[in-house]
Amino acid sequence: MRPARSPSPRAGDPKNQPRPSGGTASTPRHRSDEGDDFIIPPLPAWQPATQYPVGDMTLELIDPDGLPRPQVYTQVVVGTGSRTIYVAGQVSVDAAGQVVAPGDLAGQARQAYRNVGVALAAAGAGPADVAKITTYVVGYSQDQRPAIGEARRALFGDHRPASTLVGVQALAQPEFLIEVEAIAVV
């Protein structure tokens, strides 16, 4: 534990706080838990979003300056509508609960995304209404991305919801290799 510092007479005045070299009074700063100061870079200027109206719902897809522009997803999605739909994680099972494509990630991905489509339809939504998806893959490695991407495109086409891909050690049952959950706004 470090010894406590005694406050200077002007310690409460933010203009008199120590700054790293090159900082100015208008540059945002942050103090780490260790007491070190560092500069927070300024946010980029706001830019117009791409809007996709669907009925009474609109999704604004935003790829802001200062972040990469991915080909298959959007960095920020703002949904405006009257209902939010949360689809539980869908795995590779058929309507009878039987595992589809055991041991085959590509086959399981197709079934899991197909199940997301079925769940959305049951709630009166479609793939274009999805604002965010999260995909969990057991033992993920980058060489699995093409199979996952193909299954994803089969459901979403050109729609690019915000997306997170997470490699995990295991899912609810050892037969499951992939799980996909979604949030839609209608």
SSE blueprint:
Layout: E1 29-31, E2 37-39, E3 50-54, E4 57-62, E5 76-80, E6 84-90, H1 105-122, E7 130-138, H2 145-156, E8 162-168, E9 178-185
Parallel strand pairs: 7-8
Antiparallel strand pairs: 1-2, 3-4, 4-5, 6-9, 7-9
Report on the structure:
- Helix 1 packs parallel to helix 2 (145-156).
- The radius of gyration is 23 Å and the shape is globular.
- The protein has helices at 105-122, 145-156, and strands at 29-31, 37-39, 50-54, 57-62, 76-80, 84-90, 130-138, 162-168, 178-185.
- By secondary structure, it is an alpha+beta fold.
- Strands 6-9-7-8 form a 4-stranded mixed beta sheet. Strands 3-4-5 form a 3-stranded antiparallel beta sheet, with no helix packed on it. It has a two-stranded antiparallel sheet with strand order 1-2.
- Helix content is 16%, strand content 28%.
- Mean pLDDT is 79; it is low at 1-30.
- It folds into 2 domains: 1-42, no CATH class; 50-185, RutC-like (60s Ribosomal Protein L30, Chain: A, 2-Layer Sandwich).
CATH class call of the largest domain: Alpha Beta
Number of helices: 2
Strand count, sense and barrel status of the largest sheet are:
4 strands, mixed
Going by CATH, the architecture of the largest domain would be: 2-Layer Sandwich
Round the mean pLDDT to the nearest integer and report it. Answer: 79
Strand content: 25-35%
The CATH H-level homologous superfamily of the largest domain: RutC-like
What class, by secondary structure content?
alpha+beta
The neighbouring-strand order within the major sheet is 6-9-7-8
First-residue to last-residue Cα separation: 52 Å
Task: Compute the CA-based radius of gyration.
Answer: 23 Å
Low-confidence stretches: 1-30
